[in-house]
Structures are given as structure tokens and as C-alpha cells.
Design a protein that fits this description.
Elements: E1 17-20, H1 22-39, E2 41-46, H2 53-61, E3 65-68, H3 71-79, E4 87-89, H4 96-104, E5 109-112, H5 115-127, E6 132-139, E7 161-162, H6 166-175, E8 179-185, H7 195-213, E9 222-224, H8 244-254, E10 262-265, H9 269-272, E11 276-287, E12 292-296, H10 305-309, E13 315-317, H11 318-324, E14 330-336, E15 345-353, E16 360-363, E17 385-387
Parallel strand pairs: 1-17, 2-3, 2-10, 3-4, 4-5, 5-6, 6-7, 6-8, 8-9, 9-10, 12-14
Antiparallel strand pairs: 1-11, 11-12, 11-16, 13-16, 14-15
This protein binds ligand LLP.
Ligand LLP binds next to helix 9 and helix 10.
């Protein structure tokens, strides 16, 4: 059950809202900092997962860098305390305006995703009399065994350069004085739970790719393995902190590193998912012929993951637990949102404590790719953020 200091504090708040457990965030960040220090791995938080300022400031204070995928994210990361030199800028469609903004921020590295993009960055940097640090994103053709919408490392995905294009990329970089070569980057997918085998495979592929690439004469000093570490959506209380130890120890034992090389990772979800919860109220309990619907005031506009990916989020009735404590009364419900779409469903046949109009309900593990992917569909207001420190 979501551990909240005082559910009474929710009474005055308009629902739905995102509730962030800042103690859990700090605990997670400290854990990541200690494991990454142990293995000498540089962490760049993928800010696309959650861009709330207090969250970013907590993460940047730990000394991590950031991974950004738009010019706006680069600027936002810097304004939240990440040094420009520790911000990576990835993405298949960087516009000229975004490239300029990133150069102005002194971005640490452009993770370049096509040969044409390399030429454009070189040209813009030369016009601005700057040198652009670049790494090449390689598509390693590895199956991350995750949802097809969040698999990024297969040849048919739009991301990165094919290995066969790497020699051309190297020649291009050597011919452009406005480019400074940093290294190689990969990202094979997200919510990877097969941590040992998938990341071991990724590291083995990287060993081969780096060895081949260096035949071009360019030295790979930065090796960036991307993000992707999965979290436990089924049991957020049992596993509130993701398995960073397994992830980083696999990297440590599999990647062949020279003294002059550094390893970087870009976790997003695994740092912020479990500290966030979408808090809604029950609007109506509506009996059907064979099932009963619990209709919440939060919908797919607030958290699109179930509708978009069929994603599972654990659902809990906080009022039944904390206020009534009627443990034995459980019912099966179809839990839905208010939006006029049949896919606006939180869960079918979910067992929940008996629910009543006005009850507070928590949709767990919503800190990553929740608030950032919200929309104002049906003109619902954006659900605001509430931080545990403020209650
Ligand atoms: N680096 C790159 C280049 C990425 O594309 C991503 C995520 C990450 C790092 C961070 O991956 P993470 O550690 O969070 O798995 N909206 C989807 C997830 C999309 C992930 C996109 N890229 C979801 O809600 O599951």
C-alpha cells in the first residue's frame, strides 16, 4: 500500500494529481550514486521520464549528468542544475534551432543518429565558430525482449546508424574540424527485466563494435550504453528500488575497457517511476450486468501508458485502507477513466477493497512517462504535481 504520512492532507487537494514520494526518490538516488561510484559508471538521468523541477534538482544534486532529447530538454536540464558539459543530446530529429540552443548551453555530447545529421551539426558549429562534441548512436540489432513500442535497438527501428554506415561516419568526422569525436552510444529499449542476459548481450556487442570501429583510426573514449533498466510494476512496495546492482555489475564484468575509456548510462524510468503515484477519486460505482465499474476522475489524458501500451499499473483504494480499514471486503471491478474512448481503462477485473464515491485511489509506479506524456484531451486540466515534502 502506498505509504503516505497523512491521507487527510489529500482532502484539500483537487484530484487528480501526481503525488511524489521525495524520500523514496532520495533513497533511490543515493543508491544509484553508491553503486555507480563502486563500478566507476557515469550516470546521465534521461529527463524525458520526468521533468519536474524538484525531482531534477534532487537528481542533479547527486552529481549525475542528464540525457536530453530536445533542445528544450537541454535548456531545462541546465536550468535544474545539470552542468551543460554533462548533458547528452540524443534524438533522431534535432532541428537546426535545437542544435544551436544545445551548442549555446555547451552540451557535453550530441548523440548523432544519421550521417546527414552529422553534416548539419558540423555546419552549424562551424558557423558559430564552435566545436561540437559528437558520439555516434549505433543500432546494434539486439532484441530487448520488451514491448514493441519501446524497443529501439532492432534494425527496423528508426534509431541510430547501422553498423555498416560506421566507416562512412568516421570519415565524415575526420573531415570536419568543427566536430570533436567522443565515442559511441547505444540504447536498446526500455522496461528491460531480463537484466542479466539482455545487458550482457549488449555489452558483448559493444566490445565487437568498438574494436571494429577503432580500425577507422578514431578512438572511442566514451561508451554510452543508454538506459532501459526495468522496474517492478507488480510489486512497487516489495521492490521500490530497481536492480541497479545487477545492471551495473553485468556492465562491469562484461565490457572490455581501457584506462582512457569511460562508461556512461542513461537511466530514466528506474530512477523516478516508483516515487510517483497518480491520485484520483472515485466518481461513481456503476453496476453492469456481469461486472461493476469504478469510474475515476483520472483518465488516459493523465497517464496514457495503459491505453497506449496495455501497461499494468497497480491500483489501490487508499480510503478503504487508511480510513475504513475494512480489510475483508474486496470486490472485482473494471476500473476506468472519464475520457470518451473505450481504451480509457485502468484495469479489468481488478480486485480492490470495496470502493465508494469519493474514495482516494492510487495508480502506482507512475513517476516515469506519466506526467510528461499527459494531454488536455477532452479539455481536462493537467494533473498537477504534489511533493511529499510539502504536505
Ligand atoms: N536513452 C535513450 C536514448 C532513450 O531513448 C531512453 C528512453 C532512455 C535513455 C531512458 O530509458 P529508460 O531508462 O527510461 O528505460 N514512454 C515509454 C518509454 C519510452 C522510452 C523512450 N526512451 C513508457 O512509458 O514505457
Amino acid at each position: 500500500m502506498l505509504n503516505i504520512k497523512d491521507i487527510a492532507a489529500f482532502d484539500n487537494l483537487r484530484t487528480p494529481f501526481y503525488y511524489y514520494d521525495m524520500d523514496l526518490l532520495r533513497k533511490t538516488v543515493e543508491h544509484v550514486a553508491s553503486i555507480s561510484r563502486k563500478y566507476g559508471i557515469h550516470v546521465h538521468y534521461a529527463i524525458k521520464a520526468n521533468v519536474c523541477k524538484p525531482i531534477l534538482e534532487t537528481i542533479s544534486a547527486a552529481g549525475f549528468g542528464a540525457d536530453a532529447v530536445s533542445g528544450e530538454e537541454v535548456v531545462h536540464a541546465v536550468s535544474c542544475g545539470f552542468p551543460g558539459s554533462e548533458v547528452m543530446f540524443a534524438g533522431v530529429g534535432k532541428s537546426d534551432r535545437e542544435i544551436r540552443a544545445a551548442l549555446d548551453c555547451g552540451v557535453g555530447c550530441f548523440n548523432v543518429e544519421s550521417l546527414q545529421e552529422l553534416e548539419v551539426i558540423a555546419e552549424i558549429a562551424a558557423q558559430l565558430h564552435k566545436t561540437a562534441p559528437v558520439a555516434i548512436r549505433v543500432n546494434p540489432n539486439i532484441d530487448a525482449h520488451t514491448h514493441k513500442y519501446i524497443t529501439t535497438g532492432l534494425n527496423e527501428n528508426k534509431f541510430g546508424l547501422l553498423e555498416s554506415d560506421l566507416p562512412k561516419a568516421a570519415e565524415l568526422i575526420k573531415s570536419k574540424p568543427s566536430l570533436e569525436f567522443k565515442g559511441l552510444q547505444l540504447h536498446i529499449g526500455s522496461q528491460i527485466t531480463d537484466v542479466d542476459s539482455v545487458f550482457e548481450l549488449e555489452c558483448q556487442r559493444v566490445n565487437e563494435i568498438v574494436e571494429n570501429f577503432e580500425k577507422t583510426g578514431l578512438k572511442v573514449t566514451n561508451i554510452d550504453l543508454g538506459g532501459g533498466l526495468g522496474i517492478d510494476y507488480d510489486d512497487p512496495d516489495g521492490n521500490p528500488v530497481a536492480d541497479f546492482e545487477t545492471w551495473m555489475s553485468v556492465i562491469n564484468r562484461t565490457l572490455k575497457l581501457r584506462e582512457d575509456q569511460t562508461v556512461h548510462v542513461e537511466p530514466g524510468r528506474s530512477i523516478v517511476a516508483q516515487c510517483g503515484n497518480l491520485i484520483a477519486r472515485v466518481l461513481y460505482v456503476k453496476p453492469g450486468t456481469t461486472k461493476t465499474f469504478v469510474i475515476l476522475d483520472a483518465g488516459m489524458n493523465d497517464l496514457i501508458r495503459p491505453a497506449l501500451y496495455g501497461a499494468y499499473h497497480k491500483i489501490e483504494n487508499l480510503s478503504a485502507h487508511y480510513l475504513r480499514n475494512d480489510e475483508d471486503k474486496e470486490c472485482a471491478y473494471d476500473i476506468v477513466g472519464p475520457v470518451c474512448e473505450s481504451s480509457d481503462v485502468w484495469g479489468e477485473g481488478r480486485i480492490l477493497r470495496e470502493s465508494r464515491r469519493g474514495d482516494f485511489v492510487a495508480l502506482r509506479s507512475a513517476g516515469a512517462y506519466g506526467q510528461v506524456m499527459a494531454s488536455r484531451y477532452n479539455l481536462h486540466e493537467f494533473a498537477p504535481a504534489v511533493y511529499s515534502d510539502e504536505l
